[in-house]
Amino acid sequence: MSSALTTASSSSSPLSSKSCYNSDCKELRPDRSRKGWRLRTGDFAELCDRCASAYEEGRFCETFHLNASGWRCCESCGKRVHCGCIVSAHAFTLLDPGGIECMTCAGKNVILPLNPAWPPSLLFHSALPDRLKELSVKNWTQLAGSGPVPWRQAPSMFNSSLPSGELHHRAPYEVDISAALNKLNTSERLPVSLEKRKNEDFSQRFLNGSLKPCGQDLCENGTAGGIKSEDKPSSCSNMPKQSSFVKEDSSTMQYGLNIPYAPPNEPSARGRISGTHLRPTPLSSLPKQIHTNLQNGADSNETQLRNGRPRGESRGKNYLLPRYWPRFTDQELQQISVDSNSVITPLFEKMLSASDAGRIGRLVLPKKCAEAYFPSISQPEGLPLKVQDAKGKEWIFQFRFWPNNNSRMYVLEGVTPCIQSMQLQAGDTVTFSRLEPEGKLVMGFRKASATADQENETNKTKNGAPVQGDAELADPTSWTKVDKSGYIAKEVLGAKPSISRKRKNSTLGSKSKRLRIDNEDMIELKITWEEAQGLLRPPPNQVPNILVIEGFEFEEYEEAPVLGKPSIIPPDNTGERIQWTQCEDCLKWRKLPASALLPSKWTCSDNSWEPERSFCSAPQELSTEQLEELLSPVAPVKKMKAAKLEPDNVEALEGLDTLANLAILGEGEASQTPGQATTKHPRHRPGCSCIVCIQPPSGKGPKHKQTCTCNVCLTVKRRFRTLMLRREKKQFEKEAETTRQRNQFLDEMFPDRSMDDESLTCSNTSTSKLIEEGKMNDGSDEDPNRNKPSTSPFKGQIDLNMQPEREDELSPGSDSGSMMKMLQDTGDRFLEQQRSNSGGTRSSSSDPLEPGGEREHKGESSSNVIDRSSNNLDVDKDHPATLSLNPSASMSATG
DNA sequence: ACTTTGCATGGCG
DNA sequence: CCGCCATGCAAAG
């Protein structure tokens, strides 16, 4: 496979202690050797001065691997980059369209993982926004129980669902497990009983991919510049197991996942680099942390220092029950972060039991959490523990334990005042995090009510986005009350906290739950990525950087964005930055300062900026015309801005461009006048361009013939075609799955085996073809960005109603004769199928809709008003965005 | 009599 | 079957 890998450093067996680890180097290393890349053992390659210098200066491959294979050129700057060994593993990033980019270039352009794991569903994605959306909405179930969601790097985490066979991916961030591995060296194993644990078992999670980074890291670092066959996945899978049982010693080492949270003040390069390497970020499902470490070998010590925290002797054996996994939202994290220099490490959380919240003032701590994250105590009396709440107030609790069945029961005593101050009760959740580098413990909370509302809302309509009609949105300056992570507390299904006397609400179990929304009935309740985008606002007092990625503008925040009520921010031509938003009650549009952060349930009464319009009876300032203008497609939007529609382009879009466009342009019989409020769906607002809204009410409107090519029909047909194509693709993918996994690994590690093409080819040739076709059809696209090599062929032409995972779907804007024919064909098939199978189970995600017929809203793309200009984005509400989608946040763009 | 403390019990995963 | 932990409960204050 790759001879390049058998490089010097690739010699997997450590050389004699005195020789330079680089086997291409004949020198003996001096007594004081220098560290190179990290090895599987957690140690670092011991290099002689010369090699170490080369390594540190990034010249290692140039020096020693010059003749090895695996050299490629950066697509952006053309620089040669070695892509075939461990040393260079982080020096490049794989581009979606193929090719690689050196980190310098990647860092400039990207804040997202460029070497994603490419889960099957992503294999065909080329447009970044789509990938984002994909990431945001895929694997929802995997989000369950997942850990903190780093808003900057979140995209990577959605890959945690990758099958175990995909352990090959490189660590999303370099995970500093060196310390853990040090322990590995002293390797103390856990009791067998522990090792046997399934599912929640640390090792199990490792194996199934959720702890991939460590595993990958292990692999990567353990293979010292090359991969030997025995080092490949199999060995990777073994390693984690070991490490997962490594016991902690008394050092300051921390195990577990790094929190995928980029310190705001960290050099962007670092953040980006970590981002670019990310991939399957395990959602940090495990609250334990391993600090990110991008410099091989650079900071294991730092890590330890940073986390100066005594460890219990049994800490290493911890794996936490999912119910304790921290599910902080980025918002919560952000709020906790008092000091921008601090990094928050979510540790764990616990739902308060009746006794916890009771007057006794004892909070029972999950044993493993206590042992993992709190100081180790040997006396039952324990220690006073200083804990800071999210407001910065400090509390001192007694952290102690009781002997219990040969074990311990850990409690925090004296929590009553704190609990009361937070107004918590049984069912609410307290969260524990640590501020780095101070190591300060921070206690936060999440009200069950907020969670309940949130979750209900989530599951009813928005998938976690506290938008209109949602429960109270957490006041950004106050406590975080909203859990956007998509989980539902057990109580929320019942009648609120009232922890039943019955122990452990047996019906629902003690685990947090997320109502499944992947059924047809719930689809209409989902929020789209696009909509979610529309809810994101820069954090207070933050001016986002604008990045252009693949032709799309993104807002990049140094801090996590916050959620707000959708609003429209018109162009800033007067110097007065304002936004328009709609009252929840009277639906009148009100003008507010653009900087105002609006709660999801904003009403006129909240209008403190314009007292005379702080009640619903006050007339609307905007005329219908003005509103229309505001809502018009060319109106600037707040969020994700796809390639702009120039008036000239309208022609090109005629007939087949996105539904949204058509609807907005008022073209076609079914379209609605923009600005005209629709009542077709509660979530649809004036200007909503989804298929539901652009159609006349049930039974009304013209009949559609089979040959009809109106927007609606075309859309329906297109969607049907999508469905069919998807089915085919699915089938194909299934077969190719195994191969692809292997290939992905190989491709990523050994690009010289022409991974780009191969992965596509082996995955789905028809899809590739379609992509090709899409490229060709892109001729009418005047998007200036399309010349960018790494740009998706669909940019600017992505249909709102397409499925995120359907990049193979042609944009209707790129009309052609064959396209029309295809639509016709699929449309016919659709109609046929409809005739013969009218009540059958239908795929909710690509449910064909009958033109002009009575329909329910089943997951159509209902673009949020504020997001209308993003109608070129491939958004599908079948893939709701979760607000824990912090990635989206970081990717938001201003209009 | 009431509260606090430390431990025991047993349901549950 | 075993460990966790929510809660019961008795002793101590």
Automatic annotation (TrEMBL):
Low complexity bias locations: 1-19, 835-846
Keyword DNA repair: no
Sorted UniProt keywords: DNA-binding, Metal-binding, Nucleus, Transcription, Transcription regulation, Zinc, Zinc-finger
Region (Disordered): 1-22, 225-250, 281-316, 448-472, 731-895
InterPro entries according to UniProt: B3_DNA-bd (IPR003340), DNA-bd_pseudobarrel_sf (IPR015300), Zfn_VAL1-3_N (IPR057743), Znf_CW (IPR011124)
Compositional bias (Polar residues): 234-250, 282-306, 760-769, 861-873, 883-895
Protein localization: Nucleus
TF-B3 domain residues: 348-449
Gene3D superfamilies, per the entry: 3.30.40.100, DNA-binding pseudobarrel domain
SMART domains noted in UniProt: B3
DNA-binding as UniProt keyword: yes
Entries under Pfam families matching the protein: B3, zf-CW, zf_VAL1_N
Compositionally biased intervals (Basic and acidic residues): 731-740, 770-786
Transmembrane segments: none
Domain CW-type residue range list: 574-624
Name of the protein described by the UniProt record: B3 domain-containing protein Os07g0563300-like isoform X2
Gene name as annotated: LOC103484545
